[in-house]
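Checklist before submission:
- one chain only
- standard amino acids only
- sequence pasted in full

Submission:
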Amino acid sequence: MSVIVASDKGWVVDHQQGIDVSYQVCQKLDSTEQTTYISKQGLFAIHQPFRMDSQFDKLVSKSAKSEDASGSDRKRRKRKRTEPNSGEQQAYLNHQRIRPMLQKATEQLIALGRQKGCFTEPPDDIKSADNNLSARTASRTVGPGSCLREGCRRGVMKAGQHTDNLSANNSLLDKIDLKACCVLPDIFNTLIDHSSETASVVSCLGGEYLLPPHCCFLMSDYTCLDALLQCERKFDVIVIDPPWENKSVKRLKSYDMLTDWDLYKLPIKLLAAPGCLVVVWVTNRQKQQRLVRDRLFPHWSVCYLAEWHWVKVTKHGEMICDLDSSHKKPYETLLLGQFKATSDDLPLSSSVPDCQVLVSVPCSIHSRKPPLNAILKSYLPIGAQCLELFARNLLPGWTSWGNEVLKYQHVDFYQKVEDNIR
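Returned file contents:
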């Protein structure tokens, strides 16, 4: 189980274990041979806080006391300080608001994690560290590249859709059960149901992908949600990880971003069952958090319930960067709400606690979130229907949608156990 510790402050989650448990038994659908897969070596090998190479080299040099007199006495050019803008001021005030809670909860959860053997003491000698070299190497894994996004774009053209059309009447959209299919057909705009008791290795788009047991997925552009709307399921939980507009992402083109207006058009009301728990990942920008809390939630008929935080730590239990860093914070935020089908609904459940902290060692791949299925299970009805939007990986027992929903299912992100990498 991926939840190592649960307390009144939150949870310690083993992200890697949460992935690997689904692939202990894998087989191709046209074969009886079984194989075990685990996450690729290095993906979770975060042993030291994140530093640039220049910062790390300087730290090692200082530790070894190898700086000569001229180097240590060299005057630094002072950077000109600029006044923080309104967004930065709001982020600072919010950080000061949640900082005491984050620090106290994280310290308690790390201590409980150490008792469970989840974290080890950091090495005394910084010179023995390698600045997370294996993790940074693994993070450059290409996988399917951009072919999934490109395929979804072609699917939009094939379906004759337009960016402002979320029609639920498209005959090109279909549903396929993989029980008798070892090679995926045209998977774009098609709801794929993998009902096998074990994980499967399937071929498509010139590569191989791992599918966890009892999963269902739709890979499409956000304008082609028809198959999901037609599947006649209402979901008890919807987790949303929006592709927020971001300067770095725009420069690197690492994923397709959506505007605020695009998010307004998500058909949450058509997907949510009465009382559905809605969970949205947001960055630490207050503008995004206000958008979700004050505008998107009311537009989707969702009532705000709670704010949780994901704190990213190393394998030794240290935050991946300084808690008060002005450049990057070691935490991200989740906003939770509950769908209210009509104004006459009974008062919403108060069982979802506020101010909870999720602690885990992050994947070295940027923006890959920890699984929430094990945590959310206790707040859902038995046999709950679960959905993730903008997913880039699959979860057992869940329905997932996104234009790169199979990205981290590519075999490049895994290794067979017989490779003896542990």
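Reviewer check: The chain has a mean pLDDT of 84.
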